[in-house]
User: Fold these one by one.
Assistant:
Number 1:
Amino acid sequence: MSTFTDAAGPRGVRTRRPTPADVAAAAARGDVRAWVEAVAALTEPDAVVWCDGSASERARLLDAMVGAGTLVPLDPGRRPGSYLARSDPDDVARVESRTFVCPSRRADAGPTNNWRDPAEMRTELGEAFAGSMRGRTLYVVPFSMGPVGSRLSRVGVQVTDSPYVVVSMAMMTRVGTAVLDRVAAGEPFVPAVHSVGAPLVAGEDDVPWPCNATKYIVHFPESREIWSYGSGYGGNALLGKKCFALRIASVIGRDEGWLAEHMLLLRLTSPQGRRYHVAAAFPSACGKTNLAMLHPTLRGWRVETLGDDIAWLQPGPDGALRAINPEAGLFGVAPGTGPTTNPAAVEMLARDVIFANVALTDEGDVWWEGLTPEPPAHLVDWTGADWTPADGAAGRPAAHPNSRFTVSATRCPTLAADWDDPEGVAVDAIVLGGRRATTVPLVLQAESWEHGVLMGATVASERTAAAEGQVGELRRDPFAMLPFCGYDMADHWAHWLRVGAALDPARRPLVFQVNWFRTGADGRFLWPGFGENARVLAWVADQVDRARLVRTDVGAVPSPIGLLPAPGALDTAGLAMDERALAELLAFDPGAWLRETERTEEFFGQFGDRVPGSLRAQVSRMRAALAASAGSGGHGGQ
Ligand code: OXD
Ligand code: MN
């Protein structure tokens, strides 16, 4: 067993193994070296390597992973600088059932998080992490979420025994020794401990994707710590993303007066050259990356990408809500990404990509469902088995439904030139969406910030493959943050109300709800989506103009559920769509919405009196208006 030198006391050698509490104490002192030493004494790696995020470090690790069989290099002519990783078949998605949020009081985690007593959890973690890195290297990865030094950014240090995680973190965040300088100068860091939980016994061969059947993704929001064990995949292991930039940052934001949200960030430019910044929340795998990289079908409109998954939003000195994307890369869902759904992504993925769990072609390239209309005649599927289109027809996809690409943001052809401006951008509109086959119209504007918060609080979506669970089942996913909020969801709504109140009313973003996924009686989507979504964004921009420039033309009509586009306000020229389908898309059914409000009240019930009174009052008002509308036989929309 290695020894643990206690930097706090008289320098001596401890023979006992440090506990997670000892590790936490070293981090709390802001002493990165002592913290790393403590983690090493707990986990007993063969070596400790401090990473700098350099190209040479990346090259070294990539080579080693190819040697170990973790990565398959792709054909350099077809997909230069790119690799395929095949994960363990039991390590393919975020494990929400094993994700824990552990403040001292259960009530502070709220009813939608898995809470565990922090002391008990530390005991369990102590057992899991004891010797968990034996035979492996412990890498120290200092990283910044957001541009290094921006007042909107925060830093962290991840230790990990996975070289795959090191290389991925260097693409997804800003890794470098400048972060350690900031910590040395007194900036607090989020300590993030990660182990795949697969110690190697001397002489034992490694497997290409080490992991453990038991997993822990643990957050201690009060001490801002992250501990992740047993998985090497995505949000379970790249701890800057969901664990830090959402669960821990949401708590930091709550305490400091800002918001860490599961939102893409884009800039929309009109044919007249007016610029609008939109932050949009959608549950996992609902096409955020596609929307962030939208290729508008409306002539003269342009979208530039600022972020595709996470936004940190903070009231600025100018009274606007300023936002940055804390990430530096994209970890996107591959299936469904193709030349019609997202041409810019196809271009982005041409080189320097690490793919996970997609299929391999006979030419050494990658393929996934949706990349081309017809699959190749033969593939090696994500499990490494032979695959032909007959397997696809039999319901066995070649790529795992949650297969992913990891790529630097700088590869994104639609990336805004100023994407890493430390001042961020001023958000004009917030868009909330979910995957709803029925009930929710194509687009709806909130009547006020408070109404927008109600819209956010009631987002619901049919489940996708990004996490375990029954695909298709409808689940409430407030602000698309259900799996990502580090504190009580209802407190999160109250915090949204507080942040809104801190903004200049003239600069406060307008809030909208969208639903690209409504289906007709035949079960087919009513709205073509993708590039055509620009039509909805153009209406959003128009509404921003009407509010900001005090335009008097009418863009929206009131209804009991919010503002709907006024007849003719949504530009549908040239859209191959009949009037009936359009009317269906924008219509709302008072009966269905009455049921929706009942479900909302039921949903709010679990949060008790933490639900802000103004949200409950709005639901009551909406119910009364809907009852009157249903009674008069009224039917909203166009
Ligand atoms: C993601 C997710 O990976 O939301 O972005 O699951
Ligand atoms: Mn996401």
Number 2:
Amino acid sequence: MMKSVYIKTYGCQMNVHESEKMYAAFAADGVGHAEKPDDADIIVLNTCCVREGAETRVIGNLGLVKKLKERRHDLIVAVCGCMTQQPDVAEKLHKRCPFVNIITGTYKLGKLPEMTRRIENGEKYICDLEKTETTERGINKAERTDKTGAFVNIMYGCDNYCTYCIVPYVKGKERSRNSDDIETEVRMLIGCGYKEITLLGQNVNSYRDGNTDFVRLLDRLSSVDGDYWIKFLTSHPKDLSDDVIRLISERPTLAKYIHLPLQSGSDRILSLMNRKYDLSSYMRKIDFARSLMPDIGLSSDIIVGFPTETEEDYLLTENAVERVQYNNLFTFIYSRRSGTPAASMPGQVDENTKKERISRLIDVQAKTAAAKAAACVGRTYRVLCDGTENGKSKGKTSEDRVIIFDGGTPGEFTNVKVLSAKNSKLYGKAVN
Ligand code: SAH
Ligand code: SF4
């Protein structure tokens, strides 16, 4: 009987796509996709360590996997990704969970089918944390479960070393994929009917392959014939150029949406974070984008409770968030990541203060989001229908606003009139 693998993904969209690529690598090896862990011969945990929460969940879930393994001794268990790329964490995990057969990091995901076969052939334990900073050539094969939107890597790694962040240590140096390969992959996906292409990289604005920088890449990709839109994650405010903003405003195939993580509204904290921009240069970019696209969708990541953050620093963040008027905000409590400079900075903020600040910030954003949603009532948007919710269609606008509506066909664009708004959510109906 055909063997099957279940992959549990933690963390960001980049990890979701890594798992899609792993499913494809297993499929090429004759291993199918199990719908749930109980049905699987192989269980893979694709981990994240950017914040503490994801790590805690991995440990919790390993407890459940252990129970499965007690019932089925031939079950193969692998843990991979950012968390286990850290040698001390990998070692601790092996001691604590000796039933895990394979531990690898972020570099060898494509080799998991081969490692799995070695375990089937009698090896008891494999730990491979070797770093091979190569960028593959050719089309990335991925088993995409979503049939409307597709992720495409354009680069890997990060060289920015924000002082709170573990990513550069676990994902290695920044490296860009070949631009012809990316274009071929995007053409293929559009040809297959995908309507939303999301380009992925830790700092997409520093993409470079020969003469092709990010704006040139976007220009090439958004010139492909077809009915689709392109989004990208993540832009670093220090590198987002006016040329990119201008191109977004000119091209119908580029979604009118930018995720631009501010992290903090205090210049002192931004400098301690090594972000290399200040609030006024950030605001200039926002103002420029809005001058060309008044309705552009903006979202951001904010960290509260970075070491030494005072009430005044926090209030500067709150003010900045109110001033920008984001459609969507991802708020995080600063999480001490061992090995990063911020982890050993003096002035760590106590947990209660961090929790109190994040809940105030969430309240501020909720008010903004509700006001912005209310202002959409009566307008008609072009919406990409990408799912259902409570028997109704669910979709997104070019500005990344979510709308629940009557009518519409999954995987297709539809015009939707917004009839009401509740909190940040929009409700409407398809119109012609
Ligand atoms: N490369 C992207 C995203 C990296 S991780 C960028 O620079 O924007 C996604 C988000 O997680 C970050 O934007 C940041 O807000 C948050 N984050 C990263 N490290 C963190 C830490 N140690 N504690 C809390 N939040 C963190
Ligand atoms: Fe982390 Fe900064 Fe790189 Fe983003 S840009 S991945 S926050 S180091």
